[in-house]
Design a protein that fits this description.
Layout lengths: L4 H6 L10 H9 L2 E5 L7 H13 L10 E5 L24
Length: about 100
């Protein structure tokens, strides 16, 4: 489904799982990634980013050495009624 974290990765790949040369070159030049509003991001977003970075990059370290800068108030309460369980949030992901 478009808009889901896993589709952000899959939309950029060809049938055989390869990335375009231009898209791969952009990922290889990337040094820092600033993520704002971290509380509202689903943990699978980090998995999607890792998959994309590993496919497009040439190094095997986590996120191919890209520095992830996560910004946001992790103590902010997620929106929603009090009687509904809070959704998974990015800070619950094990990096």
């Amino acid at each position: 489904m478009p808009g889901q974290p896993e589709s952000l990765v899959n939309d950029r790949f060809e049938d055989k799982g390869h990335v375009s040369i231009e898209y791969g070159a952009q990922w290889q030049r990337l040094q820092h990634l600033i993520m704002y509003g971290i509380l509202q991001m689903h943990p699978t977003m980090f998995d999607a980013l890792e998959n994309t970075a590993q496919t497009a990059g040439s190094r095997k370290e986590a996120y191919v050495g890209i520095q992830i800068i996560a910004v946001g108030d992790i103590f902010q309460l997620p929106p929603g009624p009090a009687d509904v369980a809070a959704p998974d949030c990015a800070f619950s992901h094990t990096l």
